[in-house]
Amino acid sequence: MARIALDAMGGDFAPEAPIAGALQALAELDAAHSIQLVGQTAVIEATLSKLLSGEYAGGAGQRARLEIIEAPDVIEMTDKPTTVRKKPESSMAVGLQLQADGRSDGFVSAGNTGAQMAGSLFILGLHQGMTRPAIATLFPTARNPIVVLDSGANVDCSAAELVQFARIGAVYAEDLLGRTDPSIGLLSIGEEPEKGNAVVKEANQLLASSGLNFQGNVEGRDIPRGESDRGPLDVVVCDGFVGNVLLKFYEAVAPTVMKMLAGALKLDRETAQKAFGALDYAEHGGAPLLGVKGVSIISHGRSSARAMKNAIRKAVQAAESGMNDHIGRRLAEGEEVKA
Amino acid sequence: MARIALDAMGGDFAPEAPIAGALQALAELDAAHSIQLVGQTAVIEATLSKLLSGEYAGGAGQRARLEIIEAPDVIEMTDKPTTVRKKPESSMAVGLQLQADGRSDGFVSAGNTGAQMAGSLFILGLHQGMTRPAIATLFPTARNPIVVLDSGANVDCSAAELVQFARIGAVYAEDLLGRTDPSIGLLSIGEEPEKGNAVVKEANQLLASSGLNFQGNVEGRDIPRGESDRGPLDVVVCDGFVGNVLLKFYEAVAPTVMKMLAGALKLDRETAQKAFGALDYAEHGGAPLLGVKGVSIISHGRSSARAMKNAIRKAVQAAESGMNDHIGRRLAEGEEVKA
């Protein structure tokens, strides 16, 4: 049984997309799960009424599993990350605070990413053994999806931080993807341990003695393949600059290739989209901010109702699997390895 | 009229692939151009005989435009870059020396990339105004190809070096792609000038006052699109770590997507390959090492004869357009802007 707080005011298509996503999620999820819609009560109620009397007319049964939590303020997409501290009554801050108070099991937002990161850090706090949180994104591959982290929380990372990311990324792969003893690669520009920049070279050495199932350096080509020459990959670790560039690059490749193909193969749009389903980010919903004490799922600002539904499902899965406690225990084991 | 020196001993499929590529190139190129096959004379002669009496039986007419230049030593793929200094009689060193001596107009190799970079630096030297050379690669996009540099010569770059790369990348876009006043983007994790790591933020400021047609920061998604929200892109500047990861990632995306599609759409291999022609790296041949005084084209170790042919064509184009002198003049203008 999980209670997921949803930022009803966050994202380019709020409040419709998150609230419709909540209705879709409740229809799919076990009846024990519930959703807390956080935001301006009047706006949420009006949107709910509109959706339940229109496109979601069949969803009235889900209404009882929806709670509205008032939050009068809204953090705009253009606000600075620290705005979350200045607006404790914003949907972002209130939604996260519910979890800190033990009244919720996870938080999902498509709002201002910087503010969500800052708020998660301030309100939930960091696990012992972490110096920065990381965004963990799933990359579709020719094999199974790979967890790539950090995909944008930090522009520069130390070698020790890359090791932290490897530890928590492995737990994510275990708990949410069902991988056993996840295989970890360090993104670099050559397989040999001496290839890469100074941080990567140091991280390679630290990871080799980390007790993790470390495969060594991997290259850009290994991500779409889903494996290196040394075997399948579950987790790829990199700094947030490289990870963010790659993520945005990959997101744009599917529509680009679709456009090129539609011409060359004279595909209709529907067939092309079907073929590219595995490359569609809406399927993956959102990316957890790992390392904070709790569940905080970051969704794309342009998230559709379906993307929000998948993000909520991911929050439920994270809460139900106990991923957060698991991360805490794993980091403590990591501290012992170091000691 | 260009004389191109070709490393006949370099690459996974040498000597056949480079020599067959030379025969293909001569068949396509204007009769004024010639190729210098650099390597072990006996090996080259035997390979030429085999090819001309077999698959390339129609190529006997090209024989007169091929010169064999003896180079008894070979640099292995596993050799360190500095080996090129210890093996002055290697095909790599001899081929580059021809150009330094004014006896050749360009050099092409699919051999050891590190050795080619080191050799180009030692033997050809750097242009005034450059502190490091950069590898310039063409990325296919939904619009026109984009020049991405550095795609692997340097793991860390200073802000000033990123500006140097922008200058020489623009000349490449003008002379080899025919772009007018090329539009330059700086790869970062957000469009705003304050987004990115310390080097990128500084480079943004330097580029804004460089006199170049600088569009500002661009994101990973803008590369496959071939444009940012501010317009079409011709050149994208980044450090060699990010550039190399992206390049290898992109190279692997085409086969991966092809594999996914072949299943989903039940495409036969030939149709899929045809559709993905624009994403095929063999079409683009090789990537010039820009910033050195001369033409040095780096080809993939796995280059086929067709890829080598295209690399040779690129060397001819670079030589004929006077790109090297153009780069020298442009860098001198850049020094004046700074002064």
Structure in words:
2 copies of one chain form a homodimer. With 339 residues, chain A is α/β, with parallel strands linked by helices. The first copy, chain A, folds into 2 domains: 1-128 and 291-321, Isopropylmalate Dehydrogenase (3-Layer(aba) Sandwich), CATH 3.40.718; 131-282, 3-Layer(aba) Sandwich (Isopropylmalate Dehydrogenase), CATH 3.40.718.10. Helix content of chain A is 45%, strand content 16%. The first copy, chain A, has an 11-stranded mixed sheet with strand order 3-2-1-4-13-12-5-6-11-7-8, sandwiched between helices. In chain A, strands 9-10 form a two-stranded antiparallel ribbon. The longest helix of chain A is centred in the C-terminal third of the chain and has 27 residues, at 240-266. The mean pLDDT of chain A is 92.
